[in-house]
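Researcher: Next entry in the queue.
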Amino acid sequence: MSTQDITRLSAQDFRRRAMAQDPVMARDSYGDHRLNPDLKRLFLRDGLHDAAVLVPVVDRAEGATVILTERSSGLRQHSGQIAFPGGRIDPTDNSPEDAALRETEEEIGLDRSFVEVVGRMPDYVTGSGYRIQPILSVVRPGFSLILNPHEVEAAFEVPLSFLMDPANHRRESRIWNEKERFYYTMPYEERFIWGITAGILRMLYERLYAR
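Model: Structure for this entry, 211 residues:
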């Protein structure tokens, strides 16, 4: 993608790209195992927990942005990390879309009347035992957020143009169970986006914007 293309990223263009892609064609292709193929068998296993996250792209006149959250430091899992709003799919949820919208309302108070669901991406399988369904959406400006302090310490917006620029996608590694494990990071200002969130954003880039 050229610099000119990046500066022109808009919510309307995102909507068009999101609706054109078919998530069914890439089942089990994405997840923490994408950069770690030797771990694929370990990650793709029975008993994964079903979850859904909302990818909320805000229709800003100056260029689309993505709402991300900083998880509460008091949470047992992934505390303090940057994340999409979302969580486990409950039996009472009618669909992954419903679960993502419900969790978003509970975590950051984003009223679903401002949210237009425009698509879904393939499942993202995590090494921590989750099968996450990313729900793509366009958010109409004018909303207000009310954060649930038990789950979220902060919510902020990052330009979509920054997140979809491969120059900002770093591949890093750490030793896990005596093996080198690779993952993406996307540092933005004082925020360190990495792990599952960076992996989902990379999937978004690969499916919607990469040439």
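Model: The mean pLDDT is 91.
Researcher: Noted, moving on.
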